Each structure stands twice: as C-alpha cells, then as structure tokens.
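User: Fold both of these, please.

Assistant: Here is the first one.
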Amino acid sequence: MSKEKNPNSSTEFLSPLTYLVIGVSFVTLFFSIKSSDPFNTPKLAALLIIASLSINYLFKYWQVNSVQRNKVDLIFISLLSLFLLSGVIAVIFSDSILVALIGDTQRRNGFLTYLALSLVALTAARLITFNTSKNLFRISILSGLLFSFYGIIQMTGNDPVSWNNPYNAVIATVGNPNFASALMAIFSTLAFSILFVKTFSITFKILAIVCIAMSVTGIVSSDSRQGLVSLAFAIAFFSSIYLYLTRRKLGWIVISLSALSSVLAIAGMLQKGPLAALLYKPSVSVRGFYWDAAIEMFKSYPLTGVGFDHYGYYFKELRSVEYPLRYGFDLTSTNAHNTFLQMFSTGGLFLGLSYLLLVISTLVVGLKLVKDSDSNQRILSLGLLSAWIAFQAQSVISIDNIGISVWGWLLTGAIFGLASRKELQKNSIEQSKSSRTRKNQVTILPFLISTVVLIPALILSVLLMRIESNTFMARNVLENYAGQADKSSAISQQLLRLLDQHSSYILDSKIADPNYKIQIAYDLFNSGEQQESIRVANELVKSNPRNLYALDAVALLSREIKDPTAEIEARKSIEKLDPWNGKNYLQLMILYKAAGDITNAQLMLDKILSFAPDTNEAKSAIEEFSK
C-alpha cells in the first residue's frame, strides 16, 4: 500500500488545513460580553468569516489539482448538495425569511449557519491528508486545554465575567453546561486517541493527558450527564473497533460489554434499569415533550417542515397538553433538542432525510476507512471517527450549538476526505495522477471569488454584532434611567437620548432579530414612549403573525394603556397559536366579563376547566366569574 510522503515539519504545520482548524477553534472560543447574546451571534459572525475565507483554499485546490473522482467523493458532494438544496426550499416556505436565514433568537441555526458548516466540511475534505490531520489533533488539544481551563476557572468561582447564568457555573465559552460538557467530551476523545500514535511527541502526549484530566474534571463539575455519556460512548467505540481489528476475540468481548453498557446507559437516562439513579435527570423527561412536538410538526408539514429554525413558532400550538400542566403555561422551547428531529420538523422530509443519510454515510465511510488503514493511520482515522461519535451522541438529546457543531462538521469533512484519498490508493491510482499540479495555470481567480463572498459575509457579521451591542446598550441605558430619582434631570434626559439612539438603530435595521425589536418596544414603553411602543409591537405582529412574543407584547401593552378591544384581539390570536394556555384564557374571561359578554366569558371558563381544572388559573377563573 502506498504511503504519503512526509513533508518537513514547518510545511506540515503551515498547511491550509491548519489555518482552517485554527479558525474552527476560534469560532468555539469566541464570545462577546457586549452583546445581548454573548455566545451564538458572535460565533455565527466568526463562522461566516471563516467559511468565506475557506472558499479561497477550495478554489486554489481545485485549480492546482486535477482531482480524480471516486465513489466516496461523489457520495459526499451529492449528500451535501441535496442537504443545501433542501435547505433552500425550507427557507422559501418559512414564515420569516430573516429567521430562516439567520436563525432564531439565541440559537442562530439558520440556513446561513449550515451553509457555512457545509463549506467547512467540504474544505476539510479537500485539504486533509494523514500528515496534516495530525495538526487537527494538536490544535484540538490546545483548544481543549483553553476551553476546559476556563471551565475550571468558572467552577472555582473566579470567572472574570459576571454572567447572568441560571445554570451550573461551568458554561465555558458556549453558554450552557450541557454544551460545555459535550465539547469537552469531543476534545477528550481526540486527546485520548493520540496516546496510541507513535509519531506524536512525548510533549504532546503529556498535553493530551492534561487535556483529558482537565476536561473530565470540567464535565463532572458541570453536572451534565450528556458529556459523560458522550465520552463513554466514544471511548467504548474506540476500544471496541481497535481491539476488533487487532485482537478479534478480545474485540468481540469488549463490543458485547460496550453494547450492554450502552443499553443500560440509555435505559438509565430514561429512568429505567440499575443506572437510573446515576444517569437520570428531570431534563431528560422534558425532552420527550420536545420530541413529540417535533414529530407533530413533521406530520403536519411533511414536505417543507414548519420553516428553517422555526420550531419555536409552532411549539406551543402542537405541544402536548400535559406539557403546560406539568411545567407551566409560560415555558416554551425553540428547539427539538434532537438534531435529527429538528431537521425533519423544520425542514421537512428531504432536509431531514439528506441529513440522516449524511450521518449514516459518514459512519459507514469512517468504519471502512479505519478497516483499510494500518498502523498509525488506523489510530488517526479511528480517533477522528470516535470524536465524531461523541458529537453525534450528544446531538441525539441536545441542541445544534454552533460552538460544538463546527467540530462535528469539520470531523465529517475530515473523515470523508481521508476516505476519499484511501479509495484512490486502493484503486491503484497513483498520488501523482490523482493530484497532478498545474502550477503554471494558477491565477488570481480564487482570490477574486473568495473576496466577492467575504465582503458580504464581513458586512453581515459587522451588522449582526452592531445589532447585538445596540440591544445590549439599550437595556443598560434603560436600567440606568429607571434608577434615576429625578426623571427630568439633565442625566435622565441624556440617558433618554442614548436610549433613542440605540433603539432607532435596532428598529431601522432590516436584519435585526424580531425579538430584539420586541425588547425595544418594552424599553420604549417603560421610558414613556407608549404610542411608539404599541406601533412597533403591532408592526411586528403584522410582519409575522405567528410570533407569540409580539402578540404577548401587544396584549400586555394594550392592557397598560387600557385598550381592552386591542387586548382581546391579540389574545384571540394567541389562543389559536397556544391552545393550551390557561393564563391566556383567564385574561380573556376577565376581559369578556368586564365588557358584559357573559357568553364568551363562560366559554373561556369552560375551556380552562376542560383541560386544567386543578390549576391556580382555574381557581382564579371560578372566583372572577362568580363576582
């Protein structure tokens, strides 16, 4: 079997793949404390720029190399194309094109995110070799050290940033302990695998051990089960496959034990079996409601889904009645907490199926890559695949967070890229023929194309970050204004001018998050601009009638200015989108009774008693109706 030539270390380290992985690490580690959303929007901005820059490497590669197509390459390109085409269709049929493209509030899983992730995967597939793949491991270990070190700082109570954090303190740079623990599991898996690669230096192996120790400490401190489970799955997978290929009988034993342990672990997370006390968390039960709602969305909109990243717009309408009775009428969700169900529910059959096929193909191609490789190449391949398994394990019960997903897609591209090269070698196609250089034909075309893409990406990223900072500043200014004893003082008037400046920027922006504009509407109302506040809220309802936050704003603000007619109309719209909301029915009953419409008041009371007879809302409704 032919082997790749070993380039000198400096050339290997400065390879284009190295810059791509550094960019991926930057996406994960980057956040902004001056943003209304300090994690997701900054990561989206960084991801868009990194993906745009990668286009330059893609076109240079295609221009310099005469690539021999093979089955693996064809599968990868076809599935990525089908996924992106299905995404475009899902965007077209979405209620809000803006949300479909950029993503929902504090999620940012819109089409642009997946387009950028696809570019990262494709670039990794084109640039990776077994030699350069070592830098992927090196950079991931260094990233894991930084990431887990920050988590440990948070664990000890020494975080320099005062986060408004309702979770466990260990949120690292991704904003949630579940996300943090899942990412530490991926880093730990990559670090674990290089311990078996002979060509890595002792220094990096020591760093890998430190990374594992710090990451496991962070995972345990985060009190997040999914990080431990993901790491356990990944290590069990690595051990099972490695032993199966090297010591068949021992491998079968380990595979059997791993399979049994996996079944017990899954059962334990579902509050069944001997591991239930150790692995079960109440948050697992609530995911069942999220999954059921996603299935209902897919059944109701099988071809197009409810709209790219529009899960939150349909959740309350299609959720089970048991959910609000158990968790309250206000609690909602904007994600299925399962990437596969999220794809099917928001993008329909073709988007969900193309993503599922991409995942299955990655596993099959990865296993074949490991089987066809030998020595250190086998361990490198298995390490990448095992880390990818850790990513997929958490995606079954979690949200597709950008800081994690960028690694999952990078690993997907790396697996397909190495498998494609191995396929060429297996078919006896010489490396010189499969990658014939054409240096004399290199032009500035790649640079021009990447610049054309980079400029709008930069502009969009800057605009998104300005929107974030203005929303953040508007809230701070309002809090300072509310704290002023004399609202007519010079300082108060200056604060009002600042509030108007920040608010105007958000309201005038065509790409500002709709929910940020709702926040601005409340801010304007609290600063005394009531009519402008009502106008903004009504405009948002007009542009997106399914936005429950906007409808709630219209209802609440209408109550404040004593406009019962407008409040009734808003709450009637809420009733259609949130049919199991006892609080809304209670307010409607009170409004109808005050207006002398006893028939509709009785109807609202009957609705509350029909599904929520034992709630405080039912008791209040009976008392109010009897007055």
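And the second sequence with its predicted structure:
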Amino acid sequence: MDDRTVRDIELDKVLDGVRRYSLSPEGREGISPSLFTSDSDVIEDRAAVIDRYMSLSEGDAPDPFPPVRDIFSYVSRTHADLPGADIRRVGLFLASYISMLGYIGEEEDIHSEDKVLSDDILSSLDADGAVYEDHPRLRPLQRELERVRSERMRSAASFMHDNRDSIQQSEPLYRNERIVIPLRNDSKVVDNCYVSGSSSSGSTLFAEPFELVSLNNEAVIARERIQAEKARILHELSDRARNTIPFMKKMLERVIVFDFHHSFAVWAKRRKAHHPQRGEELSLLNAVHPLIGKDAVPITVRLDKGIKAVVFSGANAGGKTVTMKTIALSVALNQISGYITASELSVLPVFSSIYSDIGDGQSIQDAASTFSSHMKNIASIASRCDGASLVILDELGSGTDPEEGAALSSAILRYLASHAGLTCITSHYSQVKSFAYSEENMMNASMEFDERSGLPTYRVLEGIPGDSHAVATAKRMGMPRVITEEASKALMGGEESSARIIKALLSKERTLDRKMTELSLKNREAERLRSELAEKEKKLDALENELRRDGVAELSSYLRSSRRTLENLISDIRTGKLTTEKIQKAKAFMRDVEKKRDAEESLVREEEDEALDDRPFMPGDDILCGKAGTHGKVLEVNGNNLAVLLENGLRMTIKRSMARHARKEEPRKAALSFSGSSRKASYTIDLRGLTLEEALQRMDDQMEAAILAGMGTFGIIHGFGDGILSRGIHDYLSKRREVKDYYFARPEDGGMGKTYVELK
C-alpha cells in the first residue's frame, strides 16, 4: 500500500487510535500500514490471537515497556558500564516481559535468571538510576559514617565550649564537607589548629583543631567508601545487564508481536469491532467509519456476484467519499488485523493491494494542475493494479470539460473493471451513471436524500443512481432565493432529468419493499398454519395410538372371556354334559367369534383399499367399478378415463373417479383353531423331522381333537435325536391341565423315542 493511499483513506489516523493502547515504544512503531498482507492464513492467525486477547482483562495487562533499542545500540558501540538509568530500564523491561508472559498464559517461558536480575536491579536503583542509600551493602558503611560524624560533632562542640572567648559564632560551620570552627583572628588557640581559610574581611578564621582534622579525614574516607561501593554495585549490575542484552533482543521481538495483537484487541473491544467472514463478494454490513465516532451513520454495501465496479452518486456532502473510504479502511484493517468496525456477518474478499485517488479540495484556479495530477496518479494506478486490487477514485473526471470528463471517466471505469478486482468511484456525470447501467459487471449506488428535510440520510441505495441535489444544497448553504428559484426553473424547462428517473426508481423500490413485507407476513402466516397443522396431526396420532391401545385391551379382554367359554365347552364335551341348551350356546359363541373376525377383516380391507387407491391405475390392474363394486380389469388408461373389461365380458369406458383398486382375496381361515370336521384324533402321531415349534403346533391340534373325541390315551413318536423334541414335548405336557400323566414307552415299543399321554 503506497503512501498516497494511506494518506487518502486516512489509515494512519486510524492506526494512531490503535497505537494509543500500545505498551512499548517499539510495539507502537510496529503498528504500521506495512503490516497489510494478502495472505489469508496470516489474517486468520492474527484475528485468532486478537480474539483470544479480547477475552483477557485489561486491568491485568503488564506495565508499559521502557524503550530499550538505544541501550542495544550503546552496548554495541562501547564496553563502558551502562548508566544507572539504562540499567534500571533493563530491569523494568524484564519485569514487564515476565508480567506479559503471565498475562497471556505462557508462564513456562519465564526464566528465573531474568526475574532475579529484574528484582536485583529494581531493588537496588531508584527512578534516576542511583543506588538506594539503604542498600544492604551500604548499611554498614552508612553506620560507620554516622559514627564518625557524631564523634566529630561532639569534638567540635567540646572545643567551642572550652574556648568560648575565642569563638566568633555559636555554631560550627561546614566547608567542603568538613566541619570548621569560626575563630577570631586574634585568638591564641589558633596555634593549636589547622587554618583552612578566612572570611572576606579577615576577621574570622576557619580552623580545625588537630583532633577535628583527624575526624574530618575519617568522615571523608567513609563517604568515599560508600561512593566506591555504589560504583561497584552499578558495575556488577551493568555487567549482568550487558550479558542479558542478546536475550532481550529476542524478547523485544516477542513484545512487538504481543503489543500489536494486544493494542488491536483493546481497540476492537472498545470500538465494538468484529472479525468479518471471508468470501468472494463484498458485503459490508453496518460499517462505521472509525474516525467519525458515535455520531457516525452505519453504512451497508452489498455487491452481487460478478460486480467489478460501483459508481457512487448523490448529493454533495451526502457521504459518497466517506462510504468509499469506509470500504477501503475496512479492507485495510481486515488485512492488517482481521478486525473491522462492522457487523460480524460482513463478508470481505482479500485484495492484493489498495490504490486511491481522492480529491484534495483545491481551488478553481488550480483546477488544471489538479486535473493533471489526478490523471498522472490514475495512469500509475492503471499500470500497477491487478485482478485482485481495490481501486477507489473520488470525483473521477472532474476539473475539465464535463463532456470530455464523462467520456474519459467511462473509459477509465471500463478498463479498471476488467483489470482490477473492485473499483469504486464517485461521479456526478449522468453519462457515467448510464454507462454503469449498461454494463453487467457494474453497479450504481447512491446516497439517499430526504426531499422533505432537504438533508442527506447517508444511507446507501444499491442499484440506483443519485441526483446531485445541487439546488437543494445551495438553499441549505444560504444561497439567495432568487438564484435557487431561477436554477429550479431552468431544470424544469429542460427534458426529463435523471432526478425524475431516480424518484421513479425510489418509488418502485418502496413499492417492492412493501410487497416484500406483505409476502414476508404471508409466509409467516403460512408457517403458523403449518405449525398448527403439524400440532393437530401430532394430537391425532396420539389419539389414534390411544384408541389402538384401547382396542387391543378390549380384544385381549374378549379373548380371555372366549378362552374361558371355550374351556367350559371342552370340559362339558369330555364329561358328557353337553345338553341341547349348551349346544345352542356353543353355536351362538361360534357366531359371535365369526362376527368379530369379519369386523376385524373388514377394517383391515378398508385400510388396504385406502392404500391401494393411492396407487395410479395401470393396464392389467384388477378394479371395482361403481358403487356396486363390479369386478373388472383395466385395458387402457386415457387421461381421466379408463377402458375396462367387466367380469361379464362387457367392455366399456368409465371415469377414473368411478374405479378403485381391487384387493387380492386370501383364503378365509376358521375363527377358531379347532373344528371337528377338519381335525381327527390319532392314537399315535409321528413328530420326527419337525422343528420344536411345528411339533408343538401339531400337539395343540392333537390335544384338542383327542379331547373332542373323548380319547383317554395316545402315543407320540418323537425319536431319540439330541433330545430337543422329547424335552420340549414333555415340558409342554407338564403345563397342560388336561394331561393326567405322560411317560416313555417300553424298550420293545420304542423306549425313549416314544411317549404315551394319559388324559384326565
């Protein structure tokens, strides 16, 4: 991204807002337009880190990092000790770095040596880089200095007390960090002192008694020892700091990366920015220009597939240029950080570069030079752009003859639409707007203007060209009424203007919006009805299941009652108590069972007939015709008519609604499993070769027939085999109440391959 584009779209001003949250000078410098990338993976990685940092508490962020690059330079130039202030900056940097690792949850990268050095530096040096006076290594030296100073004061006080007549003042004086006694110049005691000076008048001598000379010397030596120890401390810390510089260079690289993500995370959190989706078509939803603030009107721009150029038109100061800048800024911020001040539902393609030419508001006198400058810049853009570039041009073709400017604008627009990824321009030329309508890969867009208030609404109207509203704008700016009225008359006297076309389009758009709203309401109503129908179907299914359960319960009760009746009849037959009355009851019972079976089969047939009627008629199908249900066969299907052959040989044509499919009849089964005419009792039954299930079915038949025949005993040949049949049959006999006893045959009669049964 070149400097012209950065300046035109005011990207650096936006990045300044991000830099406010930087924690290091080097990190602040690293937030620059040079981070713009077209690598989608890099964009996603940056956005992922920023997203993670947004969840962290700002209050727990590390302290700001001091600048350290000048320290690196100093160390590379000289082997001298680092100044105390620089040593302290090293300690502060290490402390912030350790705090940073803890903040981002990477404590495992903290080295104990760095923490020890940081603690030693910050506990040894004050804000100016001087060694603290209460440093542990200075305390014994400080105590020795205080002892000497106290003894020196006592000595001076004692001398002045003993020689009161020779003292010029009541208190000793400090000269060059030494205590001196002010004596009169005619004092005799001066012979026992070392005189270091006199007053300007010569009346006062500054003397040190010989005992005080020694104490002053001791105090000076004690102070020098303290200074020497401070120098040693600074030297040791300097060596340790110098040794960690190579590691700090790597730390600084990590700090710069952290500071980039952290600064954008704080900015995105406070500006309510989001990470857009990636896609081929640009769809910017509720985008806010980052520099406008809370009063900014959200902008929404959606481009259909295949759109390569957009012509923005509309009133002056209506938001055309701001809209283009918002698009370019959103693209730039997305490809720097992955975050934009727009809805997370926005979709942005990844562009290879951004080029711009935005007017600078020069005066009319400079119009020619301005036009030439713009043409030179646009020519450069045309030669450099590629199929993935974003190009934004403000007031394309302005500053020259309108007819030539419009023709040149259309030609430039056509070229860029075929050579760049997306081109956005602003224009007031009607020819350019019409040209955009005639091209499939171009789109008009305008800034909405409220005719009633005479003010722009800053809402983008897609697919509709905008009128300049020059007269309305002039009125709003205080132009004399006589001028604006004359301009309005001139407009009305000409042919139908684009403004009338725009109004018609806006009216159609509102009508379309109203119809879409009505359709949406109808869809919601249909959805409500579908939901109610589904609920009713659900209730009907539940009711059907309940009725089915009730029917099963009723049938189970009926079967239990029928079984009891059947058992009583069988008992009467066996005991010979079957009277005429009981025979009538048995026949009535059989008729009742037959009716029950017929009713069940009728219900089944109705359900099957309903399923059959859902099938289409085909030649060869068996059908029932009319209400009488005459059997027939379909010969031919002709639209809504069927050619059929009736069972009496008559051929005729009937409507499809008069026919229904005939179900295949199955042989009717007896209502009960026993019938005196269908089963005969055998004195010996052979069950060999049958499965256990088949054998038990035969046993049921034999038992019922034997009871009806009044037999007292019969034999069962089941064979030896693996014993499954014999065990299963014996288990069956053990559960039948009619069985008195059962046992294997004698060896000569079959042995364990045959069983005899005795009935009660």
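The CA atoms of residues 25 and 67 lie 6 Å apart.
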